[in-house]
Design brief:
Blueprint (H helix, E strand, L loop, with lengths): L8 H9 L3 H8 L1 E7 L27 E2 L5 E2 L4 E4 L7 E4 L9 E6 L10 E8 L15 E7 L14 E5 L8 E5 L3 E7 H6 L2 E7 L4 E8 L6 E6 L6 E7 L13 E10 L3 H21 L1
Antiparallel strand pairs: 1-16, 2-3, 4-5, 5-16, 6-15, 7-12, 7-16, 8-9, 8-15, 9-10, 10-11, 12-13, 13-14
């Protein structure tokens, strides 16, 4: 049973003494995958094939579309600290007519996201949006959670869960969530662009999930309880928006500062921690 307990002794004591389930879940959850843009691996830049942190596969820039409509494995990705979220993996578009910036990686921990686990990322999307008919129509950005081995090509939105501001020939800037059905959220692109947004995707079972988007500017969070189909072992971030002037152009760029996966403690472990808390309290009373 030793593997169920947290190695840090001070944290373990806090977990054992606390009798609140919510506190236990928050403190004692196990991180099974993590990577941060501040990782020293990225100090020299961000390139395809890099694999820092743990629990994730190497980054792929496949299906990146250059301004001349050719495809490459790099060209519209870099590191920037200009966003409100700080140092971030950044996607940017170099053309007004074409250019899909694409970055994705596999979830290797456990072979993919499992029931009871939460994928969390902090990002800041562009504040500009050229999704109306008069500006080309096919503009926006999205995040694809699905069963894949590489990035989706332009126009391929296949995913178990897709979060996007990518409305074809529609000037709406609201985030949409697509699973086995379609959902429109009250959150707009400008709201989540203001200071960034935290996205938490929790798989509640093999078919049910909950997704919470928490704007970091204090706006009201949005939570969706939905149904999905298929395993999730890959995450793909894509940007196809207004032309960027460079890495410091926060109005047009898409930044991601972190990616983590945590697992809620097993019921048996939580019960043992609760018993441990009662035992410590009883021992303290006896000493008094």
């Amino acid at each position: 049973m030793r593997s169920h307990f947290i190695k840090n002794s001070s944290t373990a004591k806090v977990c054992a003494v606390s009798g609140a389930t919510a506190l236990l879940a928050g403190i004692c959850s196990a991180q099974v995958a993590a990577d941060y843009a501040t990782n020293p691996t990225y100090s020299g830049g961000w390139s395809t094939g890099q694999n820092a942190g743990y629990g994730f596969g190497a980054w792929s820039f496949d299906q990146t579309q250059n301004p001349d409509n050719s495809f490459a494995t790099s060209g519209q990705q870099g590191m920037s600290s200009a966003q409100s979220i700080g140092t971030a993996w950044t996607l940017f578009n170099l053309s007004t007519s074409a250019g899909l910036a694409n970055a994705g990686r596999s979830i290797t921990a456990g072979g993919g996201l499992q029931a009871g686990q939460t994928f969390e990322t902090i990002l800041q999307n562009p504040s500009t949006y050229t999704g109306s008919l008069y500006y080309g129509g096919y503009r926006g950005w999205d995040i694809l959670f699905g069963n894949a081995t590489d990035n989706n090509a332009p126009g391929d939105n296949t995913a178990a869960i897709r979060a996007s501001v990518f409305n074809y020939f529609n000037s709406s800037q609201n985030w949409g969530i697509n699973d086995v059905s379609a959902h429109t959220t009250p959150l707009t692109g400008p709201t989540t662009a203001a200071q960034g947004v935290r996205i938490d995707l929790t798989l509640d079972s093999a078919t049910a999930y909950s997704l919470t988007m928490t704007p970091l500017n204090g706006a009201t969070p949005y939570t969706l309880n939905g149904t999905y189909s298929g395993p999730i072992n890959y995450v793909d971030f894509r940007l196809y928006n207004a032309a960027s002037s460079g890495l410091n152009d926060t109005a047009d760029n898409f930044g991601i500062s972190s990616m983590t996966i945590t697992a809620a403690p097993e019921p048996a472990s939580m019960a043992l921690l609760g018993l441990g808390g009662f035992g410590l309290l009883a021992l303290r009373r006896r000493k008094e």
